[in-house]
């Protein structure tokens, strides 16, 4: 649960690096939250009340996670010693999203890079010494 909420704690922090685990746990948390919001909207009869597709809870969820979602993606690119501007690859129709997806699966650079220390190093909650 800590890994899912870490990007929300670093809400608009576009500096530094983020591990794959932080990114993918955040994605999992967003998917779970979206499913729960959809179920609640269906029970309350609010599904499709906004634009014929989304309910108000889903809209609030999307608005709430868009900035931390972009920020954690930028930090993932930083972990690979790439510019955060690589996020814009996702705007290329069809292939852009696939390219970004592949980058999100790649391991980060070992040791410090120009964006900061290795997030797998000291201070990481999953490291047991």
Could you characterize what this model shows?
The chain is mainly α and 129 residues long. It has one domain. The chain has 4 helices and no strands.
Fold topology:
Blueprint lengths: L1 H8 L10 H25 L11 H24 L15 H11 L24
Which tags fit this structure?
4 helices; 129 residues; mainly alpha
Largest sheet: none
Structural class by secondary-structure content: mainly alpha
**Helix percentage:** 40-55%
Query: Stretches where pLDDT falls below 50 for ≥5 residues?
Result: none
Please report the total strand number as a whole number: 0
User: How many structural domains are formed by the residues?
Assistant: 1
Strand content: under 5%
Shape: elongated
Tally of helical segments: 4
Mean pLDDT metric: 86
Give helix and strand order, one letter per element, not per position: HHHH
The CA-CA distance between the termini, in Å, is 21 Å
CA gyration radius, whole angstroms: 16 Å
Give a short summary of the structure.
This protein has 129 residues and is mainly α.
